Amino acid sequence: GSMNFIHNNIWIIIAFLGMILGSFCCVFQSDSKSLAAYSSVTHMGFLLLSLVFISMSGKVSSLMLMLAHGYTSTLMFYMIGEYYHTMSTRMIYFMNSFFSSSMIMGILFSLVFLSNSGVPPSLSFISEFMVISNGFLLVKFMFF
């Protein structure tokens, strides 16, 4: 069955709180693994928001978001592990020396983090754009 209006609003508030708090925690991180973890919290907020939209496009954007997050976060944690094994630290401040030691790893690391950030044309961007578009359509449908 469908959820009623009040329950939808509660889930939307929880989703936004997760996205906002996760984003603020990302800004102040110096540990790359914690940054990846808080980024996952933010993406799960997007996922919760897309699941509240019971439309077919909400379900499609949820599936795309799960796929994008699954691939991107797996690669991100793998890259952070490689960085740790090479540099014996996870601190973001020392990544410059890691990038200069291996150009290929630096490029791959950058591509994975850009994809995680939702930069076009990544699957993360497409799915997050769909979630935001569905949100605007829902607000327009409900209030206008």
UniProtKB/TrEMBL annotation:
What is the protein's known function? Answer: Core subunit of the mitochondrial membrane respiratory chain NADH dehydrogenase (Complex I) that is believed to belong to the minimal assembly required for catalysis. Complex I functions in the transfer of electrons from NADH to the respiratory chain. The immediate electron acceptor for the enzyme is believed to be ubiquinone. Core subunit of the mitochondrial membrane respiratory chain NADH dehydrogenase (Complex I) which catalyzes electron transfer from NADH through the respiratory chain, using ubiquinone as an electron acceptor. Essential for the catalytic activity and assembly of complex I.
Source species of the chain: Heterorhabditis indica
A GO CC term? mitochondrial membrane
**Which GO molecular function, any one, fits this protein according to its record?**
NADH dehydrogenase activity
Q: What is this protein's name?
A: NADH-ubiquinone oxidoreductase chain 4
Q: Which UniProt keywords apply?
A: Electron transport, Membrane, Mitochondrion, NAD, Respiratory chain, Translocase, Transmembrane, Transmembrane helix, Transport, Ubiquinone
Enzyme Commission number(s)? 7.1.1.2
Q: From the UniProt record, list the reaction(s) this protein catalyses.
A: a ubiquinone + NADH + 5 H(+)(in) = a ubiquinol + NAD(+) + 4 H(+)(out)
Q: Where are the transmembrane segments?
A: 6-28, 35-54, 60-80, 92-113, 125-143
- Keyword Transmembrane helix annotated: yes
Q: Upper taxonomic classification of the species? A: Eukaryota, Metazoa, Ecdysozoa, Nematoda, Chromadorea
Identify its membrane topology class: Multi-pass membrane protein
Short name of any one Pfam family annotated for the protein: Proton_antipo_M
